[in-house]
Specification:
The chain has 667 residues and is an all-alpha fold. It has 30 helices and two strands. Strands 1-2 form a two-stranded antiparallel ribbon.
Length: 667
């Protein structure tokens, strides 16, 4: 076992998130371009504050929403072309053609913003003047290229094919045919309509997500990330398998803020993985734990990344409704992960870290209490005051003000770095959302969204389980090539209506596709979060991927659970909610024991002979108990409980036989 000392983790340490993910992805900017990014981010923030708080700074009245969207989208697209290189050959400078594109964006979006009222009142999305048509035709490829730079080639090709769909819809087979349109009509609908470029994705970004991105970056630059890692080490570092439990706690909190599994792995992994290795975790197990914890953080309230806000817009419900519904699934996921880690540590007799080497809980709390205070304030404003749009701005301001009275206060230089980092993050997400919006527009104008939903239901033969399996596979495949948010938006248009038409709960249907879109991050062959963790742990990427898949096994079943019975999303009577949550927690505990071969309170289940049979039966007992009865599943809770008890007794009988057999061999 290694005797290396864990590096000290101090609140206020620079966040590694600012550097690691940037390798090979973001352009290295000169001071002039950094200043430009900071100015543009500041201007965008002022615009957002003006619009969201209804201040009327600039025009004496609230700006027309469409004008605000044109201005802020123009700023974000320009920032995409500053931040992301077209090719590795211009990683260190902004080439002339990017400068030309930035200038064109400025001219085009200024024109649209100036004529925003006429665009709405005169319905330019259907009949624009010649100059409007020309500028729309110019904007379309710019948005496509912005999507490519921010999201990669998969997004570019998918958006290119589907955004142009109205141009060849009349040539398609009857089952997917639609009304054909000339290119100029498609262009003006995309750029000047309210269902395409400025549809739900960009509206959610400009009115909801913007503030939470600011809050997440401010939290990181003021030392929030190191504080939560230190906080976790102080609480759990000395417990059995402590560093792995620290990974769950810290990565869960960080993932909720960052909304990106890979970024989260690269932020917390360099601290948690070496600590896990030190107490005896294998490299692949340590990488798997970190990958699962970082992926699960995106599913955990209160922030959950950008996807939850887009989902709230699609469903027409408050963000708090989404966050509350996500509580039980995320608890089940992290509980399963925690129980597996505890079982693994008990089986391998892995203790925690020496208490004297860990941060003092009292000292950590005294130095970072205001992070918890700001989080509590944010949650209070979200849940009790229902101020979803304004809450993150207020929380960010509060955090920055309090931070300036601590030893970790930001210098002018550090504050400018914060602003520039926020701009980079905003530009990346806005570039992807703007491009994905074109898909929504294309399906809306051709009427294909409803047709595809009906076709999927028809193909499934009205069998809900078949439809769910088709949906799970589709979500998983799209999750490989897209970001979580992009994959969710596409599936929310195409797949979610089919699930709802089949009689499933709307919120459960949308949560289902979001969860399955996430699974590609921990599932080989393209387990990006596991591969990132493998690079930190210095182990084979595939070994880390398979270990992450095993540790996160429960997440493959949870979406089916809450679709079968939305009581797991708090959508049911109090008695039913309590029952399904209780049985699910107990079932997850047994499933975790089966996966690791160790049952807390009993001991090792064995890895061969009777032990294998015992683990299989205990796993089936756990799944049977975790499946919520009632709802869409035509099985009563009592029937499932009795079936689980039978399987449990059979499994324990085999475990006892395995133990006796081992004892006889030992004698």
């Amino acid at each position: 076992m290694s005797n290396e000392i864990i590096p000290p983790i101090k609140p206020g340490m620079p966040n590694q998130d600012d550097d690691l993910p940037a390798i090979g992805r973001y352009r290295e900017l000169t001071m002039k371009w950094r200043a430009t990014m900071a100015i543009m981010t500041g201007l965008a923030t002022m615009l957002a504050v003006n619009q969201i708080f209804n201040f009327g700074f600039f025009v004496g009245a609230v700006m027309l929403d469409s004008r605000y969207l044109y201005i802020i989208t123009g700023l974000m697209l320009a920032m995409v072309f500053i931040t992301f290189p077209s090719h590795r050959s211009n990683m260190n400078f902004v080439p002339w053609y990017d400068k030309v594109i930035i200038a064109l964006i400025g001219v085009v979006f200024s024109y649209f913003a100036f004529y925003a009222e006429r665009i709405v009142l005169e319905a330019w999305e259907y009949a624009a003047p010649p100059i409007g048509v020309a500028l729309a035709l110019l904007t379309w490829p710019i948005v496509l290229e912005a999507g490519r730079r921010a999201g990669g080639w998969p997004i570019f090709f998918i958006v290119l094919v589907l955004s142009a769909y109205p141009m060849y819809a009349d040539l398609m087979p009857a089952v997917v045919a639609g009304l054909g349109m000339p290119i100029h009509d498609v262009a003006i609908f995309h750029i000047m309509g309210e269902e395409s470029l400025f549809g739900i994705p960009m509206q959610s970004f400009a009115m909801l997500v913007f503030g939470f991105l600011l809050f997440g970056v401010a939290l990181q630059f003021t030392g929030g990330g190191p504080f939560f890692i230190n906080f976790a080490f102080a609480l759990l570092g000395d417990k059995r398998g402590g560093p792995a439990k620290v990974s769950i706690f810290s990565s869960g909190l960080m993932g909720s803020m960052s909304g990106g599994p890979v970024t989260n792995v690269l932020t917390t992994g360099p601290l948690s993985i070496p600590a896990m290795r030190r107490i005896g975790f294998s490299r692949q197990h340590a990488a798997g734990v970190e990958a699962c914890a970082s992926t699960g953080g995106v599913l955990m309230p209160p922030i959950m990344g950008a996807t939850a806000f887009v989902m709230a817009s699609f469903l027409g419900v408050s963000y708090v409704t989404i966050a509350i519904a996500a509580i039980v699934p995320s608890v089940l996921y992290f509980f399963g992960l925690f129980m597996q880690i505890d079982a693994y540590a008990a089986k391998k007799e892995l203790e925690g870290l020496p208490k004297e080497e860990l941060p003092s809980f009292g000292k950590v709390f005294r130095e970072g209490w205001y992070f918890i205070a700001v989080f509590v304030t944010l949650i209070f404003m979200l849940v009790f005051m229902q101020r979803e749009a304004t809450a993150p701005f207020i929380a960010t301001a509060l955090l920055l003000v309090i931070n300036q009275f601590t030893p970790h206060r930001l210098s002018v230089k550090k504050f400018m770095e914060l602003v520039a980092a926020a701009g980079r993050l905003m530009a990346e997400l806005a570039g992807i959302l703007a491009a994905i919006g074109l898909i929504i527009g294309a399906l809306a104008v051709t009427g294909m969204a409803g047709t595809l939903a009906n076709d999927l239901v028809y193909l499934a033969g009205d069998n809900v389980l078949v439809l769910l399996i088709m949906g799970a596979l589709t979500s998983f495949v799209l999750g490989i090539g897209m970001t979580v948010t992009a994959a969710y938006i596409f599936l929310a248009i195409v797949l979610a209506p089919a699930l709802i038409n089949a009689g499933l709960d709307p919120l459960a249907s949308h949560m289902f596709i979001m969860y399955w879109g996430m699974l590609s991050f921990i599932t080989p062959p393209v387990a990006l979060a596991a591969f990132a963790a493998a690079s930190v742990a210095q182990v084979s990427a595939m070994r880390a991927g398979w270990e992450a898949m095993r540790l996160g096994a429960i997440i493959y079943f949870i979406p089916f659970f809450f679709v079968f019975n939305p009581a797991l999303l708090f959508n049911g009577s109090p008695g039913e909610v309590v029952w399904v949550i209780s049985t699910a927690l107990i079932g997850v505990a047994f499933l975790s024991a089966a996966l690791q071969g160790y049952l807390i309170g009993f001991g090792s289940l064995g890895d061969h002979g009777y032990g294998i049979g015992s683990r299989v039966l205990l796993g089936l007992a756990g799944l049977t108990l975790a499946v919520p009865g009632g709802g869409e599943l035509n099985m009563s809770p009592l029937m499932l409980l009795l079936g689980s008890i039978v399987l449990l007794f059979a499994g324990m009988a085999l475990a006892v036989m395995q133990r006796r057999q081992r004892a006889e061999v030992a004698r």
